[in-house]
Amino acid sequence: MSAGFRITSALWDKIHHFASFPQTGVSLQQMVLFGQNPSQGTLLKASQFLAGTNVYLKKTDLKLTKLALTEELPVRLAHRVKELSELPHGLGDMPSIKKVQNWYAQSFEELINFPPVVLPPDVRQALITPRTNYVLPESTPNPSLRHLDPDSDEHSHVYGYPLNGSLSNGNGFNKLKLRVPMERRSVRSRSSFAVGSHAIANRPPPVHLRRYYADTEPVVRWPPQVQDYNKRFTKVLETIKSRHDPTVTTVAQGVLEWKRMQNARNIGLDIQAWLDRFYLSRIGIRFLIGQHIALNTQQAHEDYVGIICTQANVHDIVSEAIENARFVCEEHYAMFRGPPVQLICPPDLNFPYVPGHLSHICFELLKNSLRAVVERYGLGDDTEYPPIKVVVVEGKEDITIKISDEGGGISRSAIPLIWTYMYTTMEGQGINQDFQASDFQAPMAGFGYGLPLSRLYARYFGGDLRLIAMDGFGTDVYIHLNRLSSSREPLL
Hints:
Layout: H1 9-19, H2 28-35, H3 40-51, H4 72-84, H5 95-112, H6 121-128, E1 157-158, E2 161-162, H7 182-185, H8 207-212, H9 224-243, H10 247-262, H11 269-297, E3 304-305, E4 308-313, H12 314-333, E5 341-344, E6 350-353, H13 355-377, E7 388-394, E8 398-405, H14 450-460, E9 464-470, E10 474-482
Parallel strand pairs: 5-7
Antiparallel strand pairs: 1-2, 3-4, 4-6, 7-8, 8-10, 9-10
Helix pairs in contact: 1-4, 3-9, 3-11, 4-5, 4-11, 5-10, 9-11, 11-14, 12-13, 13-14
C-alpha cells in the first residue's frame, strides 16, 4: 500500500499550503438534500467539493481561473499530516505513527494529482451556475462541542482544562486553531449572525452551498467523459478508504510503543485531546468518502441517500446491536445463554441518521454492560442474571437511548479514567501487529477505546454520550442523538 512511500520536500510544501485553509463542516441535512436523485453532474460537483480537482476547465482556457484550488478532503488530510508531524513528547517518532502519517500523505498526494476532465463549454457552464430556485439549508454549530465554538464563552477550555494551562506543553501544540464554518466566511458582517444557533432571516445563502448546489437540470445527456471521471474518482476513494481501514488500531499501537518507551502508565491530557481530535476527524473523512462511494455505486433506495438512512428505525438498529453483543458475550465466555436484554422502544421511531454509527455505539456499550453483569454474577448454567434494560424515548430535539445494567457500577475515582484512551479493566489484552480491520470490526474490548470512540460517534452529528454510575450496583449510559440533523461536523 504505502510501503516505500516518502514525503518529499515538494509534497511537504503542498501539505503546509493546504493545511493553511479552514475545513468546511457539513450537516446530515445538507448531505441528504445534496445527494437526493443524483445525476452524473451532481456527482461531478461532489467530487469537486471532495478533491478540488480542476474538473471543468480546458487547459487552453486562459481566461478562467481554477475553480477548486483547495477543497475538502485534501484540506482535511493536510491538517492531519501536519498535526502528526508536530506531536509532543516524541509520539510522532513512533514507527506506527509514522506509518499513519505516510498513509495520510499518500492519500493527499493522490487526490491533488488526480487528472481533470475536459468538458464542452455548455456542460461546464451548467456546472458552475448555482441553482436559484433552491439552496441547501445552513448548518448550525455542533451543540456537543459548544466549548470549542469560537462564539462560546467556554471556547478557551477543552474537557474542562484551560488551553493555556495544564494542556499546553510549551510548544503551542494545544493552542487549537478553531475552524471557522464556511457560512461565516461567506458573509461580510458578523452582525448577520444571531446569538447561538438562531439565524437572522434574509441572510444570503452560504457561498459554498451556492457553489456546489449547481443547476444541472438543463443538461439532459451528460457526455461519456463525465461518467468515466466519476468511476475513476470513486476507485481512488475506495483505495484511500481501504488504505486507512487499520488507522485506529495502528495509532493505538503507536501510543503503546510510546508508553513503553516512556515507561508511562497513562497518557497525558495533551495526547488525550489530540486523539479525540484525530479520531473525530477520521470519522468525518470516512463519512465523506463513504457517502460519495455509496452515491456512485449503490442502487437507488427510497430510504437511503448514500450511507445515510432517511428513515433509520431505531428499534431495528438497537435490536440488531443487542443480538450481536449477546452473541459476542456468549462466544467469549462459552455460555449457552447470556444475560437477558429488555428493549423498550417505539417500533415506528424513525429519523435521518447513519445506521452504522448508531449500531457501533450501541454494540460497544452493550458489550460493556454484558461483561459487567457476567463478571459480577459469575458463570454457571443455573445463574440468573438481572436484565439489562434499554429504553428509547423521543424528545423535541433529541432521541435518547438509556442502557442500564446491574453490573456493580464504577468507583467514583475511576470515572475520569473511563473516557481515557488505553484505559481498560480487562487484563492481558494486546493489539496484534498484523491486525488490519476497521474500527467497526476491530475487537476494541480490552483496548480502552470502546467508550471514548463511541462518544465521538455520538458527538459527530450533534449528540452526546453520558455515563452515571452507582458504585456497588450498576451503570446508566445515556446516548443523545440530535434528531434535527442540522448540526455541522465538529472540525477541530
